[in-house]
Amino acid sequence: MKNKEHSAEKIKICHLGIKGLPSKGGAERVAEAIINRLARNREKYELYVYTMQGYSAGYVPPANVHLINIPVFKGKHLRPLTLGLLSALHALFKGNYNLVHLHNVEMSFTLPLLRLRYKVITTSHGYQVRPKWSPIVKIIWQLMDIPFLWISNIATAVSSSHQDYYYKKYKKNVVYIPNGTENLPVNKEKARSLLQKYGIVNKPFLLLAAGRIIPSKGCHFALKAYLNMKIDMPFVIVGDLDQVPEYTRELKRMGKDKVTFIPLIEEKDVLFGLISLARLFIFPSTMEASSMALLEVASLGVPLLASDIPENLALMKDHTNYFKSGKIIDLENKLKYCLENLSELREKALQTQEWVRKNYDWDHITRQYEKLYKNLMDPE
Q1: Is the fold of 2-180+361-377 the same as that of 188-359?
Q2: Does residue 283 contact residue 306 with C-beta atoms inside 8 Å?
Q3: Multiple choice CATH, 188-359, 3.40.1190.20, 2.30.30.140, 3.10.20.340, 3.40.50.2000
Q4: 3-state secondary structure of 121
Q5: Between vectors from CA 80 to CA 71 and to CA 289, what angle results, nearest 5°?
Q6: 80 to 17, 72, 75, 87, 186: CA distances (angstroms)
Q7: C-beta separation of 333 from 372 below 8 A
Q8: DSSP secondary structure of 175-214
Q9: Cross-strand pairs, 322
């Protein structure tokens, strides 16, 4: 009877725990990729997305994607707390879904409420307890593992290293479903115009781009290596420079007039155009989950030098070039090798491009989530 009911009616899936659509980075990009593909099947799915009020202003979603705006309090910790709590309460008392897809482990405090009425798939987009956090925040964050692992109907992780972490620490199995990539929009003409605005005209350049310019992205390591080597090639750093003002000031002090800083580029075709023009992309992060940026750079066929953190190794295996994370001397040595062997790197980058597109295809990844959705609604 249940199978007939699902086949006759659209499946209503609620996505909760992200800031909203369109994506500007992080878990939103993953959720957006899944939602957009599910939305193509208008006969089968009706999708509901809880968004932070104001985040999705001006955005027109597909016809079968419904945005539910949630008011939030201001403040670094109050904002996600109120977004999660009020979203869960709305889903509980006003929603009518077949299942809930909850994003981010830190939102797992909503699971006791959601599970009163719904079956829930929860996705870990990264396990990142940051050193600068207070002891209380660290404890609260780690406590979220309990509802994530024991209250979710199905717990998933976008990184195989995080899957291993949960099993080693808790002896709990988590389903690994990686992030993906797709054919990306590229506008080299606009990218060249942007570079020209910053004084870089028809020159090869090194590039570091991140959604947020924060210490864990490792910009200071790349900058120190670049300055130590006295490379005769512009170094461009792109990203939100307002996240940690004191860190940005220090980077600019170090770089002086030798480094070009460009604020966050929200037009994706321009950002990808800039990446595709780079001679070499440096990815020095000390902390990641399953980096969308890493996959996107690789899918554009751009030579890449990445830190050897477990998450990057698990994602890219032996298909890119690595340096020892946080080790400036090793970064200098690997950077020197890359710049001296660019033709070899370009050939490797094209092989990596093909491998990434084959192994991290969003359509295939979305089908993996669809299989979990089906199993959850209609267990055999």
Answers
A1: yes
A2: yes
A3: 3.40.50.2000
A4: strand
A5: 140
A6: 8, 8, 9, 10, 33
A7: no
A8: EE----B------HHHHHHHHHHTT--S---EEEEEEE--
A9: 306
Q: Give tens-digit pLDDT for 233-288.
A: 999 999 999 989 999 999 999 998 889 999 999 899 999 999 999 999 999 999 88
Q: Using alpha carbons, select from 94, 92, 104 the residue that is nearest to residue 25.
A: 104
For residue 46, the cross-strand partners are 12
Residues 36-84: tens digit of each pLDDT: 999 999 999 999 999 999 999 889 999 999 999 999 988 777 888 999 9
H or E stretch at 223: helix 219-229
Reference 206, options 301, 279, 300; nearest CA is 279
> What is the widest separation between alpha-carbon atoms in the chain?
71
Select the CATH number that applies to the domain covering 2-180+361-377 from these four: 3.40.50.2000, 2.60.40.10, 2.30.42.10, 3.30.70.1560. Answer: 3.40.50.2000
**CB count, 10 Å around CB of 41?**
12
For residue 70, give the 3-state DSSP assignment: strand
Neighbour count for residue 97 (Cβ, 10 Å): 20
Output DSSP code: residue 360: S
Structure tokens at 49: 């997305």
Quote the tokens at residue 293: 């940026």
Q: What residues form DSSP beta bridges with 45?
A: 11
